[in-house]
Each structure stands twice: as structure tokens, then as C-alpha cells.
């Protein structure tokens, strides 16, 4: 084996200098990646504009085919350029954009921001060698300038329209680039029988200046992105709207027309396709937190509000369109209550609360018609996030009772506790059922988070598993998030998508 290794090394060292890719402008090499039917090319004119012609079937799936003009860098980096196609093109899915790539194999881990022939702009990424490609679609239109941003373990992107001002497009994902990586400009024809050409003007590679954030928890200033994600197989993410401040906890209305979220104590609604948010009237309740949700018939909204002088969260119900007089339905004079679930028949709510006679947060239920609340969980350790199964037989919740934060379930009357997730490497919170009852989505924190905490601004995952436990949880997506990401039920009525919030530190 050693002899063969020396032969390979000798051949590599003997390769003639002429075989090395030629430098183009500020980039070290211009090469075709993967299998391309037509050879690409790259040149730079006297004004500094790069013109790249590329073939290849696509930048997607588990292997790519495109023309790449790149150089080697390491650490944090922003790359930006004015990007435009030349000619009408053959395929509306042709791509031109900016890319960071671990290596030059077709299946390399990568992240890019791509302008498509039909105007779509998206952040694409492959997390592992030869793995699948994922996507975060922006809501930007008329893009003229793009920027791909690597900051620590995460990649972000920005887009400029006709005014030329780059604005954060929202969404993020961690990519573990190891050591030096390739960065540059890429073009793929999306049809291996042809080539497509794009120009890249005013190209800039910069190391960003990032202010130190001493406390990335609740005091940290953040930007927020409201996103929806397909969970039926494509598992692509789409930006609904990017916000300069903090928003939390989207609900999807039963008719599919709105997403409802909270921000700075108020509730807002916005169409899932994007647009301008509208405030929802909640009367004197103006310190709403991120524990709110919609009745099964879609007519009512439950809120958890802390407007009273003692700052304890209490639960109110109001019409879905808003009201100046929400009705108090659950609360206590000296301890907080946080709504999380609604029984399928609409008659009962489930919530987490602590009471003077207990030291833990437990699961409670109360009939909206009146009567005393019922304590359903009594085991030592925090219980939170109760949600009824669609058949009404069980309440699922997250619990620390085993010494690891996991998903559990009990009967609707509190009987027969049963553990659902069992991976000690993750702290699982907030189980949410698909409308047909077949799937559960939840958020998973790492062991860097305290057992009973679900803080903001952490590396988290959204995971999904069959409700019947027939398969282990699998990762839907990784993101920078946590508290506020998916605290409440957020499935679309057709069961094909979920809504959530990702975050970015203001630095």
C-alpha cells in the first residue's frame, strides 16, 4: 500500500505547470466542477467586470455541474457583486451567483446565493460531502446585487434591488467549513446541452467587522426572519418577511390565510405569502408573550399576557379578529400561567403553570365553560409545552423528569405518563402535531443549554418524527434560533408546511 501511495504522490508532483488553471483577475482558478457537456470560460474586462460562461445540469442534489471562478480564503468573509444574465436564456432555472465551497469535488459541502433565470434569489447549501442540497428562498424581487456572508459557523445573505442598497434577506444555516475554503463566482446552465453567460460587476471580498456581543441571551439585539418550510419531501425554506427587530412564535390560522405572531407585547397577522403586518386588537392586554394559539374551529385566539401590575402571565380568549375586551379564562394572583394547547372539541385549554403549593411548572387543564383548573402532571421536574393529540386522547409535552429534557405524553386526564423521545444528546421542547395526527415537529437544543431552559440565540434544530413512534426523529433543518422559534402550534392546515422564526445577532 505504501508503494502505491508513493506512485500517486510522484505523479501529482510531476504534473506540468501548464495543467494548473489560469488566474483570472482576483481569482486563482477558473474550472468546471462536475460533469459538463460544454466547457465553460471566464474573463475579466478592463472595467473589472467578470463574464462567466457555464454549462452543467444544475447546482443541486448530491452533486453539482457548473463553471466556478474561485480563490482560497479562510475565516469570516463577505463576497458581493452586481449579478446579471446575458440574453434571454433557455431555462428559467439557470443560476448565477456567489459561492463558498469546501472543495472542488461535485459533492462538496457549500453555501451559495443564486440569482435564477426567472428572478428567484435563494440561499442554497449542502451540509455534508455528497449529501442533499437545501434551500432558503428569499422574498426579494428585482435583485441587482447579491452578498453571501460567512460569519462564524453560519452563512447569511443579502440582496439589493434597483436602489443598490444591500439588505439582509433573512434565514440562516450553519455550515462547518474546515480550514481554508474556495470562494468565488458560479454559473450553471441547468441544461447540459447549452451554456449560459452572466456578468459579475463591482465584485468585492471583505472580512466583516463584527462587534463582540458579551451576552447573546435575552439582552442581545436581534433581527428576525419569519419563515415557512415544506416538510413533505423537498424540505425547502421560504422567507415570508425579514424584520429589523424581534418577533416570535407564529401560529397558522385554520383557513390558511394568516400567520399570527407576537412582537413587543402585541400580536400581528401577516399573509403566508408575505406583505405588511396588521396589529390585532387585544384591548388592555398589551404585554402578550409568545404563548398564544387558535381554537380548533378557527374562531378564537388564546393569549398569555403579563399586563397586570404583578407581571404574572394570565390566559385570555378573544375573537380571532381581535377585541378590546379579552376574557380572562385562567390565571393566579401570585404565579404565572402560559397557554399551549386546545382540546380538539374546543372546550378545554391546556397550559403550563406553577402554583404556590408546588415548586415546579406542571401541566394544567381547564374547561372554558368554567370550573376549577385540573393539575395533570405531578412528577418532579419542569413540564412545559402541552398540546393535545388531534384525537384528544393524549397531551404531549416536554419534561425534565428523567434528568434529560425529552418529549413525553400523558392521557388527557393526566394518567399513564410515557416517554416519547429518548436521545440524551438533545434537549427537546414544544411538540406540535400535524393536522392529521401523523407527525410531530419539535425544537431540539444542545447540551450547552441548561436542563430547564430554552434560551434565545442558540444553535438549534427542528426535528420531525412519526407520532406512532415507528421511526426515530430526523432533522428538518438547523438554524440560529431558540426561544421564539416554534413555541406554539404552527402547522399549515394542509399539513404540508410549518412556520417558524430564525434570528441573527445585531453586530
Automatic annotation (TrEMBL):
Pfam families: PD40. Residues 1-19 form the signal peptide. SUPFAM superfamilies: DPP6 N-terminal domain-like. Keywords: Signal. It comes from the Bacteria. The keyword Signal applies. The keyword Signal applies. PANTHER family: PROTEIN TOLB, PROTEIN TOLB HOMOLOG. Belongs to the TolB family. This is Biopolymer transporter TolR.
